[in-house]
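hiii, so i know i said id send this last week but things got crazy w the move. better late than never?? heres the sequnce for the chain we talked about at the cafe, plus the structure i predicted for it. fair warning i was half asleep when i ran it
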Amino acid sequence: MHRFGKKVICVCLAVGLTLSCFGCSKKTEETAESQSSVERAAWVSNGELKGDSVAVAVGKEGVSYDEYRVYSWFLKNQYDAMLTSEVWNIQLGDRTVGQAAIEDIVRLIIQIKVMNRAAEGEGVALGLDEKEDIDYKADQYIATIPEEERKANGITSELMHRIFEENLVARKMYDVVTGATQVNIDAATTQAAKVLLLFLPATDANREEMRGQAAAYAQELATYQGNFYSFVKEKTGEAPEEVILGSLDSRTNLAANVLALKKDATSGVIEETDGFYIAYCLKTNTQNLNQAYVEQEVEKKQKDAFQAAYENWASGYEVRVSKSLLSK
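okay and structure toks below
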């Protein structure tokens, strides 16, 4: 898939937004009726879906099945190139990868529509030069798609222009919110370390059990012949990721213990409210590492601000999704 095409499908997914539901239960409808600020959703088609059938509705705005199919084509084209088309049939619990992908695509569409509606209210729009540029890129992109593939996936110039334009508006809305977010961090006093973590989540119900498990792991690590990376993978089935954390972390006990470690040292068991950690220090406090940590925390706070803004926007719209689409 072309680089720009990947950007189109990833712009909003990268924001990490979530939506709690797709349908409209009776309770939801009754609640919507009692809240005049919530824009009721248009009706969607729950029968056989054709190109112009309304498959998703965000408030009064309906999304055609063809528009959904173009987004689906973006996603499938991306992963088919890396893997094979068989990936969509892999079972994930009670559903396949393909069925999970449908929900992901629907979430993406809802996100983009909500952000574009918010943009209208905030007066955020594409300038003439921006529109001409993005439409030109859309035309260039669609020219690379074989005619038979366009017909098979409902791809038209009009839909491609709309998708490219709405994704760019969504990107602008994200930039507007994050750009206006004031984040004050004193980089001079900020400390960080790069670590690998072994984490055992714990609740009140199983805390003592997890405490014992963590202690056993720490004892075993003391005589383990391999490295920390292989130990974590062996015990949890997943490779640990490199994490930068430090003095700004809300997990104050974890941060204090990690910052006290020397390079290539392993901590003891560190208890936090969410569970137990054992940390291995890859890199200690340096100016470059501290700066990377500050930038990471600024980005996190900006994303948190955007998440809050998005949830506020989304609360103004009832959403409906075709049962026929979700059952595919």
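btw Strands lie at 54-58, 61-64, 91-92, 95-96, 192-201, 242-246, 270-272, 275-283, 319-321. thought thatd interest u
miss u guys!!
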